[in-house]
Amino acid sequence: MFFVLTAFMGTAQSSEPSGLEISDLDGTWFKVKTKSKGFCELEDGSLDKEKHNEKGYLYISYEGGDSFSGVYVYLDDEKVWREASEMELQLEIGNMKKAILEAYIYDEFSDDDYVYSEFTLSLTTKEKKGELKNAKLTTLNSYGYEEDEDGECYLTPKLSGKTVKEEKVPEDVLSIVF
Q: Is the pTM of this model over 0.85?
């Protein structure tokens, strides 16, 4: 038993600072998935289960200090790439090896049709020869809200993703971001 525990601890990833800086995330692409579950209120006041899956890309630009700007592009219900109206990203704690980020995504379709999500994300990176090799985002905590002509929905969205090289990003997505 003692040997197994020692072997496990020996393979745990260190959160010690790496040779990378948080600014090394500038220009990084993530291929992401968002899965949301929750409830929507119907006209009669009863609740209906809601489930929604979404695929997309997140592009990160470093703004300085602990601030980033982001562009979130997702495939909508009509299978068309769409940029979310607003995307904010902030480093809360940690370093380039392991960090906690706060993310806010808002999209508006009309005055009474919008959706927003707030995420607390874990960022884990790996480096090779002082360069960012890959990074992974996972949701630690989240909250989502949607309102449209049908009513209100309260959701728990889960965002996950990993880095992807720019040449793997679809041209339609690149044309929206750049």
A: no
